Amino acid sequence: MNRGRANIIHALFLTAGLLLVCCAVPSFIRSTATRSASTKAEALSSTTNVKLVWETYCKNLSDIRFSPGGDYLAVIDSQGTVTAYSSAGKVLYSAGVPGADHIVISPDGKYAMTYTALDRKNTTCTFIDSHGDVCWDLNVRGAVWSADACTTEDGSRFVIGTGDKRVYVADIGKRNKNYRWWTAPGAVVSLDIDTHGKELIVGTWQKSSVERREIDGTKLWCVDADNACLPKIQILGNSDQVSVLFTPNRRTADGSYMIIGPDGQLITQGNTDSAKNTRVLFDSTGKYVCLGYTEHIDHKGNSMVEKRAVLQDISGRQLWKKGSAFFQAAPILVTSHGEVLLRDSKNSLFITNPSGELESVLKCSGKFLDSASASNGSFCAIHCSDGKLYILKLS
User: Fold this and answer.
1) Are 119 and 106 in contact (CB under 8 A)?
2) Computed over its alpha carbons, how large is the radius of gyration of the chain?
3) Measuring CA to CA, which of 78, 103, 133, 324 is 20 to 30 A from 219?
4) Residue 190, class by beta-carbon neighbours within 10 Å (0-12 exposed, 13-18 middle, 19+ buried)?
5) Cβ pair 228, 247 in contact under 8 A
6) Residues of the chain with confidence (pLDDT) below 50
7) What is the pTM of this model?
8) What integer pLDDT is reported at residue 238 of this predicted model?
């Protein structure tokens, strides 16, 4: 074989080798990209599934409230018009209660109660049945500060807290309407009744405390608080624990939060910063705490505000932090798996997985105004400036 022919054969082999390598590289890249995408999908697959189940138009809402468990939703507008929906979006009834601006609905949806919050001149609690008819007007002593509801064997039970240090227990059903009351140590800022209607937690101001009471008012335990703070309490939906947010009655003062165990023992606590407008959210099991706050950034004489969110476990260990000049992160709710529903400044909603990775959920058509969620975290309502009310199901 002469040298020229050998060179030709060598060149052919070299070309073939290069072709194999060139073909193999894209294949390797595609394989690697597929594995990366798959890994990311697996990481995000642990995220709670968030689905827009229905939407409607509601203008000028003054209150949005899910029933305990999330099977029903009730809203009330600035004219006192009440509308109740099923979890699937069916309108159950509509009723007018002029002057009312807050609403509570029972877990079975059979009764709702409206009231005017913090109004000493209007202390009437109006009860509405499942047909939208007013069936009872109960006049209480003192402005109504708080209310909650549960279902009993005989009907529905509502608890009402007033500024005159009273807790009313009102039972209503087909054959009965009755109420009783007992005295709390201070104005009843917040209260929450358990699912069986046997016990409730009350948060009072002046004197400030958090107490667990039997339905007849018998005290089970008490945690005293600073009289400058108004305690907002909630029985965490899937546990025997109670979350408390202490909000100072002076805007410039800092507050605090805690989780209390079933026997009144402290489980965790932390502080809030009034200058940063800290907001605190708890999951329904008491395992996670999410802090939303604003950070003022000064750079070369210019000032801007960034909204940030931090997820912690109950030991105080930070799991992740979100928020920057390009992503204004404001938390809406925390799931029992440590995922957080967030909104940004561009009317978009996202959910994180426990590691903090973001997944887009929804683009709203208007600016965010308000939100409400079921106590067990199963549903969330988002109300926007264009009147749209979005209902999300988390499963």
Assistant:
1) no
2) 27
3) 103
4) buried
5) no
6) 1-46
7) 0.86
8) 66
